[in-house]
Specification:
This is Glycoside hydrolase family 31 N-terminal domain-containing protein. Belongs to the glycosyl hydrolase 31 family. It is built from 12 helices and 30 strands. By secondary structure, the chain is of the alpha+beta class. Among the domains are: about 160 residues, Sandwich (Immunoglobulin-like), CATH 2.60.40; about 80 residues, Sandwich (Immunoglobulin-like). Helix 10 runs parallel beside helix 11. The longest helix has 16 residues. It is globular and about 70 Å long. It starts with a strand and ends in a 6-residue tail after the last strand.
């Protein structure tokens, strides 16, 4: 069907019409200066009972509301960006009516959202590529029986699914990072002392991550011999102690970091703006204004140069890397770089992340755009050490659900207790509740340690690290199902009954697979909470009491050392 009007031609095509599923495309070709804009009415009702709609998907955000009707956008360019923690920006929205919308990657997309509508606008404006005359506004609509069926169809048609699982040891044992505990700079002596403490207190490890600042200068990818006099000796000692070693790296070079900066600049390895006033200039959290540049991962020669220097670090005994940043917003605006112009600027994120994944399943990245196929952990962006929605503990589960429903099931939660930035204070209660909330997620990551708090925190932390390890085989099983079938590792609780109106709005519980309901306490000073159990028969993981689902448990008692969770009555832990 073709619609004419307002100077535009809109093609609506039936792509598929099979039993239980309809699939359409809506497309129009626009010229520079024209604007295409279509609207979703967020609060429509559906079905004979006029059930209110709820929506999922959309971007990762600092205040990660779930469902997403509470989000607000105003002429919001839909690219990966550090602002608001928008590191994952899949163009995918899913409703409880069993309808999904997917907007093609080539569309220069802007969002507006208020209490009533979510507006998708296509226009040739920065930060997108603006030097051609035509562009296409194309999106797909899928309609299935319910949200679960629609999401599975979306996985098969528009969202990639992983080709393999990441490193299993990162699932089974905690990751330890120097970042929050030591900040910068870090030293060989400090790293070894940290490892000895971890072992002395009886904790296991997946790996120890050496974070900021180990380099001669930012972008050198060369150890400072002042703080790290013998890297090979250090990595050998750590290996003897049972540790693998990862290293924090980033895609920037500061201008004072020579000879590496001069080499990159002279060989065309840096991102340059079309705007000559901006040139190669950018800023990141470890530089001043216009004092750094961003490596051009759209340039294959720059990728080879960066990758070769990482391999040289591995020759020193570094096992792998924690890749930070990678969002489009770090590069100079209006980039003059290689690649299909319709995919700029976010193709920079794609090429960076795909380069990272070449180093295997032991890495972590923190951003993505159509990279769900990669068998690597994707880390949530830095959380603050707070209780609330403002990038605190309350946002943890909504972020987990957002990532899973965008096709990223291998989620690495941020460090237990957050990053303790600014005036934030990490209390014992917040540390323990954060750990409990993370137990049934794919991995656990410590930086502030339990022994930084007190003896009881050590005991409680060991208990929950062991609980995570007990269920690690099941987590890995669900990861393999994500590979074979595209199913989320940690779905929302409505996954078990997509028609359950109460489950559709629950933001503070999650599933591990389809057999464990997790309902952590997320409020300060709380020692009880109300828990909604989805469809099924459930055995309390703490008391062994059996409950029927589809109903509330009110005032469930959960002192600080207790995590409320429920296991399917038919589940057998191998």
């Amino acid at each position: 069907m073709r619609l004419y009007g307002n100077g535009q031609n809109i093609d609506i095509r039936e792509l598929e019409d099979s039993a239980g599923f309809a699939y359409l495309s809506v497309s129009r070709t626009l010229r520079k200066g024209q604007i295409g804009s279509d609207v979703l009415h967020l609060h429509d009702t559906f079905g004979p009972e006029q059930t209110p709609l709820h929506w999922y998907g959309g971007p990762e955000l600092m205040e990660q509301y779930y469902p997403i009707e509470k989000l607000r956008f105003d002429d919001y360019p839909y690219i990966t960006k550090e602002l608001h923690s928008a590191a994952i920006i899949e163009r995918y929205w899913l409703s409880t009516a069993g309808v999904f919308f997917y907007i093609d990657k080539e569309v220069p997309l802007f969002l507006d959202q208020d209490e009533q509508v979510l507006r998708f606008t296509a226009k040739k404006e920065l930060p997108y590529y603006t030097y051609d005359d035509e562009f296409v506004f194309n999106y797909r609509i899928g309609v299935a029986a319910d949200a679960r069926e629609a999401h599975q169809k979306a996985i098969e048609r528009v969202l990639n699914q992983p080709v393999d699982i990441p490193d299993e040891r990162m699932v089974r044992q905690p990751i330890w990072s120097t970042w929050v505990r030591y900040r910068r700079p870090i030293s060989q002596q400090t790293v070894l002392e940290f490892a000895r403490e971890i072992n002395a207190y009886g904790f296991k490890n997946a790996q120890l991550d050496i974070d900021d600042l180990w380099e001669v200068c930012y972008g050198s990818l060369t150890f400072s011999t002042i703080t790290f006099p013998n890297v090979t000796e250090m990595t050998e000692t750590l290996r003897e102690m049972g540790f693998r070693v990862t290293l924090w790296v980033h895609p920037f070079i500061n201008k004072n970091c020579d000879p590496w900066y001069t080499e990159a600049l002279s060989k065309g390895y840096l991102v340059k703006s079309h705007n000559e006033t901006i040139g190669y200039n950018t800023k990141w959290w470890n530089s001043g204004e216009n004092e750094a540049s961003y490596i051009n991962f759209n340039n294959p020669e720059a990728v080879d140069w960066y990758r070769r220097r990482l391999r040289e670090l591995q020759d020193l005994g570094i096992d792998n890397f924690k890749f930070d940043a990678g969002e489009t917003s770090w590069a100079p605006a209006d980039p003059d770089i290689e690649g299909p112009t319709a995919l700029l600027p976010s193709s920079q994120t794609v090429n960076f992340v795909r380069m990272c994944a070449e180093f295997g399943g032991m890495i972590e990245v923190r951003t993505g755009w159509g990279t769900q196929d990669l068998p690597v952990f994707v880390r949530m962006l830095d959380f603050d050490t707070r209780w609330g929605w403002n990038n605190g503990l309350m946002s943890l589960i909504p972020t987990l659900l957002q990532m899973n429903l965008n096709g990223y099931p291998f989620v690495l939660p941020d460090m237990i207790g957050g990053n303790v930035y600014g005036d934030d204070i990490l209390t014992k209660e917040l540390f323990i509740r954060w750990l409990e909330a993370s137990v049934f997620m794919p991995s656990i990551q410590f930086s502030k340690t339990p022994w930084d708090i007190d003896e009881e925190s050590i005991t409680i932390s060991k208990k929950f690290a062991q609980l995570h390890e007990t269920y690690a085989d099941y987590i890995i099983q669900r990861m393999r199902l994500a590979v074979s079938h595209g199913t989320p590792v940690n779905p929302p609780i409505w996954w078990l009954d997509p028609t359950d109106k109460i489950a559709q709005t629950i933001y503070d519980e999650y599933l591990l697979g389809e057999d464990i309901v997790v309902a952590p306490v997320l409020a300060e000073f709380a020692t009880s909470r109300d828990i909604y159990l989805p469809k099924g028969t459930w055995r309390d993981g703490n008391t062994n009491r059996v409950h029927e689902g589809g109903r509330w448990i009110y005032n469930y008692t959960a002192p600080m050392d207790m995590l409320p969770y429920f296991v399917s009555a038919t589940f057998q832990l191998n």
